[in-house]
Amino acid sequence: MRDVVSSKTSEETEKKTVYAADDRDVAREELQKLKVVFEESVEKSELEVGAEIKARVGQRIRELDRAVEAMEEMAKDE
Q1: pTM, full prediction
Q2: pLDDT of the chain, 78 residues: tens digit per residue
Q3: d(Cα 41, Cα 54) in Å, to the nearest integer?
Q4: DSSP string of 4-73?
């Protein structure tokens, strides 16, 4: 799913469609929601489980964060 959302939003940004800004806004909002759920899951879990969540999911969230930032930068450059 991450690749589909990121790919579609990136495609709209590259093509400079009328939907591009809205797609980037939605991507940022949804990423923020994901970060909140991630942090809550880590904090509310037992120490071992929280560490496992961080190890498995944390990297993916950082990748999504960088992808959204890259799209925003791409839009600023144009």
Answers
A1: 0.71
A2: 455 455 655 565 566 667 788 888 999 999 999 999 999 999 999 999 999 999 999 999 999 999 999 988 888 876
A3: 9
A4: HHHHHHHHHHHHT-TTHHHHHHHHHHHHHHHHHHHHHHHHHS-HHHHHHHHHHHHHHHHHHHHHHHHHHH
The residue type at 32: Q
Distance CA 4, CA 6 (A): 6
Distance CA 33, CA 65 (A): 12
Determine how many CB atoms are found less than 10 A away from the CB of residue 47. 8
